[in-house]
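User: two proteins, same treatment. go.

Assistant:
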Amino acid sequence: MCGWRRKPRAKVETLRKQAQDWVDHYGFSAWIKLQLGERAVSLIKDPTVETDLALLDGCYVLETDLPAAVADARTVHARYLSLPEIERDFRTMKTGQLELRPIFLRKAERTKGHALVTMLALKLVREVDRRVAPLGLTVTDAVARLQGVRLVALGDPELALWRLPDSYAPANRKSCRSCRLCLRQSCP
C-alpha cells in the first residue's frame, strides 16, 4: 500500500502516475496492476501471471539479425557463451601481459599490421596459458621462469657461438617441458 497520509494536499493521481511509471520502468506491468483508493494507490499482483512468469526464470532470448543459413540457434548460443572469453582476451591485450596501448597510425596497412601482431601475440599468450595451466602457473609466472633460461657462450662472445646449457633449475625445467621448448637432443 502506497499512500501520502502525511501530505494532505497531495493528489492521488500524481501518486498513481509515479507508481505506474515505476511499474512500467521495471517491466512489472504484465503481473502488477494499480488500484486507486481514496488517499492511496495499491499494487495488486496477479498470481496466475506471476506463476507463469516464474517458469521463465533463468531463461533468456538471444536475438540476432543474422539469417538462419549463416548461423543457426546453436551457433548463436555458442558465440554468446564465449563472450566472457572475448572480454578476457581484450583485458589481456589492453592491461594484461600484452599492454596494447592506443597507437595512432595514419595508414590502413600499418593499422592492420599492428592489429595482426597483437592478435598473434594473444594467440601465443593463450597457448602458453593452456600449456602451463596444468602446472598451476599463470602466464606471468611461466614467462618469469622462462626468463631464467639463458644461453651459454662457447669461447669468445665476439664469435657469437652460443648453446643452451646442459642443466636447468627444476622450475625452469617444468616450464620448458610444458611449453615444449626443448631445443637440444638432451632435453632438460
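Protein 2:
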Amino acid sequence: MIRKILTAAAIGLASVLGIAAPASAADLEWNIASGNPGPPVRDACAYWPGTGQYPGYGCFTANGDIFTLFDGAADGHSIGLYWRNYAADGSIYREGACVETRGVGTWGACNKNFIENSRLKIMVCTVESATKSKYDCANWSDWIYA
C-alpha cells in the first residue's frame, strides 16, 4: 500500500515539475507528404538502396526545416524518410516519418520546425503506410544540423 502511494506521489511530482517521459514508438510523428515540390535545394540526402537508378530518396533542407522525398520504385509500397532530432545531451528529442503515398514518380514534402542548430539523422525506408510499418531501410545518415 505504501509503495502504491509513493509511486503515485512520484508520478504526480513529475507531472507538476514538467519532467517528460522518454520517447516511445507511440510518440513517432507521422506525416503524409504533400505538394509536388520537385527536386529539393538540400543540405543532406539519404537514398533507399533498391533497384533502379533512383528507387527512392529523401532530403533535408535546413532553411525552413523541410523534408523532401521521391518514390522512384514501382513496387506497390510507399517511401518514407525517417528522422530523429537530438537534444543537446545526445538524447532523442523528437522523431518521426515523412511518407510519400501517391506512388511511383511522385515528389512530396513535409514541413517541420526544429530547434535551430539542433542535430538530426535521417534514413529512407520502404513503407507499408496502412500499417505504418517500415522495412528495407538504408542506414542512418551522418549528423545534419537544423
